[in-house]
Each structure stands twice: as C-alpha cells, then as structure tokens.
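We now fix the convention by which a protein and its fold are recorded. The integers have meaning only within a learned vocabulary of local backbone shapes. A complete example follows; check for yourself that the lines match position by position.
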Amino acid sequence: MSPKLAYRSTLPRPDDPEILDTVDQALRLGVPLRYAAALAGISETTAYHWVTDCARAMEAAPPGTPLEELGSAALFGQTVKEARASLVLEAVTEWRAAGKDWPKWATLLERLFPQDFGRGPRSETSASATNNHVLGRGAEADRALLAILHAKLLTVPGSPGREGGGAVSEDPPGPLA
C-alpha cells in the first residue's frame, strides 16, 4: 500500500467520498481520528481543522439548516460524529450483553472517550457555561469524619491521648488537605 498523502495529485476536499468512507470505517473500528486521517491520505491537522469548522458552522447556523448549506467541512465533521456515535452504541450494546467479558468494552470506552466514560472529574460544556463536577466528600464531610475518628481514638486503650500514650488535644483536627 503506497502512502496516500505522499501521492495525492489534488488538494483533499472534506466532502471527498473516498476520504469520508475511509475515515468513517476507521472511526467505527475505534481508530483515533489522527490515524484515520492518515489512512485517508490527509494530515491530522487538516482532519481536526475540518471537524472544528463543522462545529463552528453548526453552532452558528439556525436549527434545521441542511448540512449541504453549511459547507463541505460540515459533512466531514458530521461523518466523524456519526462514526464515533456508532462505535459508542456498539460498545455499550456489547458491554451490556458481554457477561464476563464486559471489562474489555468498558476499557475501550474509557480510553477512547474519557470525557464520557472516564473515572476522573467531569466537565460539561454548553454554549453558556461550564460545570465542573468533582466526585468527593467535601470539606464538611471531611470534618465530620475526622471528628468521628478522633472520638474513636480517645476511647481506644493505649492510643495517643490515653494513659501514657502521648499527648492529643481534645479538639478534633482541622480539615484534610
């Protein structure tokens, strides 16, 4: 197989059916966009540029505007979105039906789409605001937990603060760092 990018005789177009088909097939298999672009004979930068152009055009257009009116990059961007959505649907369906093999599907989704399936803090972005969600107890719960632990330590024989066990104040410690 010869490198498509090296032997391209014309400028790539976002609506080129060969490019669209190659990118679509690769993304549906879980190939990241940067590699799907290389398989289609376009640079990674070009692929991301077209996806960004699509997002801007769709955001600026009134709802219901046909894709054809948004420009050729919109078709490329929509192809990328649909291929990724298809992969997610297939992986979630397989995950639910996998029985003991569910971890491979969960891992696939977690690694390809960490913003949706990852374990860390999540950010939701909309046109008007960004909401960050950090999964944790919070300062008030930390203080309550420390007070309970402190009280338990004071009741255990031989623990610090008991006979000969060292000095501990009767006040619970401050919040966790």
Notes: Residues 17-133 form one domain. DSSP finds seven helices and two strands in the chain. The longest strand covers residues 122-125. Strands lie at 122-125, 130-133.
